Input
Amino acid sequence: MAEYSQQVNNSLMWFRQDLRLQDNQALAAACEHARRSSVSFSKSLNEPSNASSDLSQVHSQQSAGSVRAVYFAVPKQWQAHDVAPIQLDFIERQLNVIASELAKLGIPLDVIHVASFEEIGDVLAQYLDYWQINKVFASSEPESNERLRDENIAAQGIELALFDQHCYLAPLSVRNLSGDMYKVFTPFAKKWREIAKQNQVETLAKPAAIAAPLAQPSEINLRCNKRCSNEWQVGEEAAHQKLRQFAKDKMHDYQASRDFPAIEGTSRISAYLAIGILSPAQCLQTLLAYFPDALVNDDSPGRCWLNEIIWREFYRHLLVAFPRLSKNGNFNLLANNIDWRNNPQEFQAWCEGRTGYPLVDAAMRQLNQTGWMHNRLRMVTASFLTKHLLIDWRWGERYFKQKLIDGDLAANNGGWQWSAGTGCDAQPYFRVFNPISQCEKFDPTGAFIRKYLPELDGVDLKLIHKLKIPNQAQLFDNECYFSPIVDHKFARTRAISQLSVMKRGS
Ligand code: FAD
Output
C-alpha cells in the first residue's frame, strides 16, 4: 500500500536592522527551511515495484514551501524613541529596494503597521496563522527592549530562529580569562582579533529564487515623520561601491586623515551599517581584500580602520552584557551622583550651533543640515555639552538620535558616555577637550568652519583659531558671530570639580 507524506515548510523572514539580501543569514535560513519541504512516497514490500516511475512521482511532487517577508512599522514607537526622520526616510527607501529585489526571488514583503511595540507578538501570531507559516527567521538585536520582545514571542510558542549577525563576533563570545566581558577596549580588541583570525571571513551570496517572480510591489510608505535622505544612495550595490572605493583610495591614509573634518578621510558607511544594508562581515571581508594582514600585523595600514569596526563591536557587546545601558543608565554608577547644571537655554544654544566656539558651532550645523557629523566633532561637541556646559549626556545623546542618519543606540550611548567620562573605558572626567586648540589642530585651514559658519567670512583665520573674533559681544545677535557662551578656563575648572564625584573612592 503506497503512502505519501508531506511536510511543507513555510518560512517568514522578519526584516529588522538587516535590510539586505546578501550575507543575510536569517534570510538564507528562511529560504533553506522552505526548500527542505518535501513530499515523500513509500510503499509496502509486497507491492509490484516500478522504481523509476516511483522516483519520478516523488520528484515531480517535491515542492518547496513558501517564503514571505515582513517589516513592522511602529511610527509611535519611533517617535517616542527619537528615531531621526532622516534615518526613517533612508529605511523606507531601502525597504522599497529590497521589496523589489525580493519580488524577483518570489518572496513578497509585507510592511505591517502596528500601534505599539507590545502588539507585535499578537499581530505576528495572526499573520503566521493566516499564511500557515511554521517558522520565523530574524536577526537578533542587542537592545534590551528588543531582546525582551523576542523572549516574549518565543514564550508564545512561536518558533523564532535568531541569528547574531549585527556583530561579526556574537555578543558575549569575546571574554577574558575569568569568562567575563571586557571593560577595557584594548584587551577586548586583542582578543577579538585573535578569535577573528582563526577563520576565513565568509559571507553569503543573495539567495536563489524560491518561486516564480512576483509582480513589482507597490510603493512602501512608512507613514511617519521623514526628512529627505537622498544624499545617501540606497541599495546594496551602492553601499559596496562606497566601501570598496574607500578601501581602495583612502583606507591606507585613514590613520593620518580621519581626524580632519574638512577632508573626506573616513568611509561614511555608518548609515549603511546602522540599518544593515552592509553587514560587519562584509566590511571585514573588504578590508582584508585590500589589507590581508590587518588582523595579524599591528603596523598594517588597515589596522586603524579595523579598530573602529571593533569599537562598534565593543559597544554592542557591552549593550548585551550590561542591559542598563539600553535604558540610558550610567555605566559608571558613581556618575549617578553628578549634579548636572542642565540649563535649557544653553542646551538650545548648543543644539543650534550658537555657543561662540567655532568648531562646536560648525559641527552642530553640519549635524542639523546634513544628518551626519564627523567623529572628531562628535567627540568635541559631546565633551563641550557635558563638560563645559555640564549638561547631562542623555540630553545630547537624545538630540543626536533625533538628527543622525546613522543613529545607533550602542555606538551613540558608547560615544556619549565615553565623552562624558561616565562610560566603560571612557575618557577620564578630568580630561576636558579644549575647543579652541581642537579647532586650530583639526581644522588648520579653516575650511570646515568656513563652510558651516558663513558669518565668519572675511574674518582672519588666526583670530578664529585664537577665539579673538571681532564683534563677538552681541550674544545671540544674528548679525554677527556669538560671544563664547562660557569662558574655557572657568568651564574646565568647574567641570573637573563637579565631575570629581566620579573619582574612585569618592
Ligand atoms: P569610519 O571612521 O569610516 O569608521 C568605520 C565604521 O566603524 C563606522 O561606520 C562605524 O560603524 C564604526 N565606528 C567608527 N568609530 C566608532 C566609534 N567611536 N564607536 C563605534 N563605532 C565606530 N556611530 C554610529 O554609527 N551611530 C551613532 O549614533 C554614533 N553616535 C556617536 C556619538 C558620539 C558622541 C561619538 C563620539 C561617536 C558616535 N558614533 C556613532 C561613532 C562614530 O562617530 C561614527 O561611527 C563615525 O563618525 C561614522 O563615520 P564613518 O562611517 O565615516 O566612520
Notes: Residues 85-104 form the longest helix (20 residues). The two ends are 83 Å apart (CA to CA). The first strand starts at residue 2 and ends at 7.
